[in-house]
Amino acid sequence: MISIYLPYRAFELGAGAWLAGLVGASGSVVYMFAPFLAGRLSDRFGPKRLLLLGSLMISLLCLSYTFVTVPAAFVGLRLLEGIGWAMIWPPLEALYSTSGPNLSGSLKMFNLSWGLGSVAAPILGSLIVTASSVDWTLLVSAGLMAVVVVICLGLGGGRPSHAVHPEPGAARIGFRKSVVLLSNTFVYGFTITTISTFFPKYAASLDLGVALWGITLSAIYAGRLLAFFFSERVISAMGTARTRTVFLAVSMCFPICAVLLGSNVYALTAASLVTGAAFGLVYSSTLVSVLSGPTEGRGRAAGLFESSLGLGSFVGPALAGSVAGSGLWLTMALPLAPATVVLVSDMAS
Questions:
Q1: CATH number at residue 284
Q2: Is residue 317 in some structural domain?
Q3: 341 closest CA partner among 178, 231, 195, 179
Q4: Is residue 216 part of a domain?
Q5: How many helices (H) and strands (E) does the chain have?
Q6: Count of structural domains within the chain
Q7: From CA 317, how far away is CA 198, in angstroms rounded?
Q8: pLDDT means per 10 residues in the chain (349 residues)?
Q9: Residue 227 to residue 250: CA distance in whole angstroms
Q10: Which of 27, 189, 229, 294 is the Cys-Cys partner for 309 at CB 3.0 to 4.6 Å?
Q11: What is the pLDDT of residues 91-119, one digit of tens each?
């Protein structure tokens, strides 16, 4: 809800497209490198302490957002938010990677858990906005993260056992393969964050109501959640590399339809579902590949994965904000550029 409704709140407070894009991107400035550092700390000291501190920080920041009256203030606060999320995601991925009998199955459960929250967020947020105001979406977010803080307090603080569920023949991923893997994650972060930041404003310019664009955004996350259910089977059948390449191409369905069929809610929703499902498979296959190395380095590997997401999540809205003045439709077309570059590179290699 934060990634969708905070930039929308900035628009309400009078921010232009460039500033709203900066609000959407600013949390990712820190997230470009903080997850890597947090992942290393997770490997060294255990993930549970970081989870507690990160959850507490996010809860307090969500509460503080409701007191902001000058939209530029969101930018500084979102820098702190990036640190908070960096202390949550890599440790959580490292914990899940050793929680089941096999890596792919464990990460499937991880993806399903956070994917379900992402599906609920736009619909819940739109209901809250319709009943009250955007500020209440931030208050609800603060309350939900406060619940997470309580749950983290019950986890204890011990270090993880790196002897659990070792991957047979696991070896560290080389530099070249890392670049290939993380470029896919970059496109994922670039596209999803750009859409969540600018599609509400783009939809409003087409006279689509909050409930309609909330449903459209939810379809992306619903498609991604559906893909997570079948990800283990698809990856087993196609292999991780082929899964990434094929479904990265399919993921551009929504940006294309948003430009060509922007006012057709039914077409947009269907395209949103397809894009979400494709990105779910890209995300799953990339994460499995990244975390397939030795268990004692999975916090670091997860940190690299999240840092590449952060880079894409920063660059996307920042570039979109700079082109939005020439037409909001350009913000929807923008993800086609990096996706095309990555696809051409994948096929060439």
A1: 1.20.1250.20
A2: yes
A3: 179
A4: yes
A5: 16, 0
A6: 1
A7: 8
A8: 85 84 79 84 81 93 93 91 90 78 78 83 84 89 93 65 43 65 89 84 77 78 89 88 91 90 82 93 88 71 84 85 84 90 79
A9: 13
A10: 189
A11: 888 888 777 667 777 788 888 888 888 77
Q: Give the whole-angstrom CA distance, residue 263 versus residue 260.
A: 9
The first and second tokens of residue 188, run together, are 């994922």
- Single-letter amino acid, residue 282: V
C-alpha 77: how far from its chain's center? 19
Is the Cβ–Cβ distance between 202 and 324 less than 8 Å?
no
d(CA 121, CA 173): 35
By CB atoms closer than 10 A (0-12, 13-18, 19+), residue 302 is buried
The maximal CA–CA distance of the chain, rounded, in angstroms, is 56
Task: Go through the chain and tell me how many residues it has.
Answer: 349
- Does 166 reside within a domain? no
Q: Assess if residue 167 is contained within a domain.
A: no
Range of the domain at 92: 2-160+172-348
Question: d(Cα 186, Cα 12) in Å, to the nearest integer?
Answer: 29
Q: What are the residues whose beta carbons fall under 8 Å from the beta carbon of 272, sequence distance 6 or more? A: 216, 217, 219, 220, 223, 254
Residue with tokens 């659990």: 164
Q: How many CB atoms lie within 10 A of CB 161?
A: 10
What stretches of the chain adopt beta strand conformation (E)? none
List, for residues 160-212, the tens digit of each pLDDT value.
444 444 444 444 555 667 777 888 999 999 998 888 878 877 887 777 777 77
Are the C-beta atoms of residues 280 and 224 closer than 8 Å to each other? yes
Measured distance CA(125)–CA(84) in Å, rounded: 22
Give one word for 165, left, alpha or beta, with left for phi > 0 and alpha for psi -120 to 50.
left
